[in-house]
Amino acid sequence: MPVTILYIGRDADITAVMNRLLNARVEWIGICVCSDEEAISICLEKQLDLVLLGNGINQEAEQKLREKLLALRPELKIVQHYGGGSGLLYGEIMSALREQN
Amino acid sequence: MSQFILHPANTRGHANHGWLNAHHSFSFANYYNPDRMHFGVLRVLNDDLIDGGMGFGAHPHDNMEIITIPLAGAIAHKDSMGNSAVIKSGEIQVMSAGTGVSHSEFNANADEQLNLLQIWLFPKQKNVTPRYDQQTLNVEARHNNFQQILSPNADDEGVWIHQDAWFSLGKFDNGFKTDYKIKKTGNGVYAFVISGEVTINGQKLGTRDAIGVWDTDTINFQADCEGAEVLLMDVPMELN
């Protein structure tokens, strides 16, 4: 059963790369968005396993986003993902899923 | 009480892609080891051998301080900030990815292998304006001396980054002894032996071995062969 991962980042190019990288693995389904409103609506519609907070989200927006997402799904694992490219992605997702289990 | 962790060279992650032969001191790409995620804010230390003319096409980064030290050969860099440069052995390059930057990195020579260290640190401050810098280092100044090549201060020796980190490179005569004083309370030192044999805090290390030391203010160093080369990374142990 693939894990469903929501990535939120502000830079459209980086977010597009993240979408390609996440969906390149059969064990992951990646949904990548740039807006918080879209992220909230996806959280309402889909059964998410993990949320990655990516590039360009300032502290205030991050706080609000976390509150809103956790209000909808208190069990949701939310982690920061920085670095952009594929270098850190696998390790950080594996670590987050490991902690969750 | 001083604490340490040893990372022998042969315990690093390894990926041979043909054109790229990479050793990862910490989890990177498909190498995942939950015990090797980071040393303080030091998240990536890759030791890459790249074939002539080959390299990494345009790819994005954000919120990372990325330091590249060519050990042999030269790297051609281009980025979305408009920088286009070649960085040679004896130089250092730094890129603060901040809000987001895209870059490509290729071996600048078609007929010579490139060996580089690429180091990523978590920044002290997120979403800074991306920036790029490179410097030529005075290689003579590291003979029997830990030459500072990076710091948090723009007006200090070496390049600067958005983190309370200091890097030093040294090349030592056999038997040379010295102490290195950690620059900031709460920092630890990750010492990576580029070549040769050394003893750090009583631990014998060889080429590409590493030791991380923390909860101390000084490390003791001795070179055990002629021309031993070491990179010290003095970094905050707490993640921001």
Automatic annotation (TrEMBL), chain A:
**Highest taxon of the lineage:** Bacteria
**What is the protein named?**
Uncharacterized protein
Question: What high-level taxonomic lineage is stated for the organism?
Answer: Bacteria, Pseudomonadati, Bacteroidota, Sphingobacteriia, Sphingobacteriales
From TrEMBL, chain B:
Quercetin 2,3-dioxygenase C-terminal cupin domain residues: 149-235
Alphabetized UniProt keyword annotations: Iron, Metal-binding
Any GO MF annotation of the entry:
metal ion binding
State the SUPFAM superfamilies in the record: RmlC-like cupins
Key word Endoplasmic reticulum present in the record? Answer: no
Would you say which domain of life the source belongs to?
Bacteria
Give the cofactor note text.
Binds 1 Fe cation per subunit.
Q: Name one Pfam family in it.
A: Pirin
Q: Which cofactors, by name?
A: Fe cation
Q: Which residues form a coiled coil?
A: none
Outline the extent of the Pirin N-terminal domain: 12-121
Q: Where is Fe cation annotated to bind?
A: 59, 61, 103, 105
Q: Has keyword Metal-binding? A: yes
InterPro entries per the UniProt record, alphabetical? Pirin, Pirin_N_dom, Quercetinase_C, RmlC-like_jellyroll, RmlC_Cupin_sf
For this chain, the family text in UniProt reads: Belongs to the pirin family.
Q: Which PANTHER family match?
A: QUERCETIN 2,3-DIOXYGENASE (PTHR43212:SF3)
Q: What is this protein called?
A: Pirin N-terminal domain-containing protein
Q: What species was this sequence derived from?
A: Pedobacter rhizosphaerae
